[in-house]
Amino acid sequence: MNHEKILIVDDEAAIREMIAIALELAGYETLEAEDALQAHHCVVDERPALILLDWMLPGMSGIELARRLKRDESTGEIPIIMLTARGEEDNKIQGLDAGADDYITKPFSTRELVSRIKAVLRRSSALSQEKAIDVDGLKLDPVSHRVTARDKPVEMGPTEYRLLAFFMSHPERAYTRTQMLDQVWGGNVYVEDRTIDVHIRRLRKALEPYGYDRFVQTVRGTGYRFSTQVESKTEET
């Protein structure tokens, strides 16, 4: 029994009950909320280990709640799995850009859901237990989710943060887009190569004012790597 609390946010009581039964059988404690306001209060009061968040909610949407939680320093580290009937790629990208750690489309099997939860919690736990990483003045603190460049705060989105955390904890090694997809987004999430490239460009843009964009390097024919060794300009894109 792991006793980690999972918050289920869905306006349909039958879906909440179905998920709660499956999670309790898997050893989790469950909390429930039927709208974004209830969910926010529950997150603040109960500090769940993970949030299962339905996209379509009365009042504030799940996607907007995800953005609010990720913007708040006190709740930004709690992983979120979006639950939705929206299966189109643009919706998936929107959910991930809002800070969701994974995305599962209804209808889904409870067995798959439990597997996704375990995978997200493993990734979240591994990241949160790491010590602050400092590379030539670029510092990432997994506990506070802050990035600083020579002690100046660096603003970036949640996906760019996860990319940088992965890069800084795995330096000087080239990774394919498929490997990065598995490590940063989770292998069950469908994201095209071009979407990864977009987030790489956003990460470089956030680091560029401080001169650290050069650490995020393109490896032609492979993918990307994080390196303090300056590469020739012909390799960079």
Furnish the topology, listing elements before pairings.
Elements lengths: L4 E5 L3 H13 L3 E5 L2 H11 L3 E5 L7 H10 L8 E5 L4 H9 L4 E4 L4 H19 L4 E3 L2 E4 L4 E4 L2 E2 L4 H12 L5 E2 H9 L7 H15 L8 E4 L3 E4 L11
Parallel strand pairs: 1-2, 1-3, 3-4, 4-5
Antiparallel strand pairs: 6-7, 7-8, 8-9, 10-12, 11-12
Helix pairs in contact: 6-7, 6-8
Low-confidence stretches are: 232-237
Assigned CATH superfamily of the largest domain: Response regulator
Indicate the mean pLDDT.
85
The name of the CATH architecture of the largest domain is: 3-Layer(aba) Sandwich
- Give the neighbour order of strands across the main sheet: 2-1-3-4-5
Annotation, overall tally of beta strands: 12
Q: How many structural domains in the coordinates?
A: 2
Q: Tell me the span between the first and last alpha carbons.
A: 48 Å
How does the overall form come out from the CA principal axes?
Answer: globular
Task: Please provide the ordered H/E string of secondary-structure elements.
Answer: EHEHEHEHEHEEEEHEHHEE
Structural class given helices, strands, pairing?
A: alpha/beta
Percent range of helical residues: 40-55%
Query: What is the CATH topology descriptor of the largest domain?
Result: Rossmann fold
Instruction: Classify the beta-strand content into a percent band.
Output: 15-25%
Largest sheet: 5 strands, parallel
Gyration radius, rounded: 18 Å
Count of DSSP H/I helices: 8
CATH class label of the largest domain: Alpha Beta
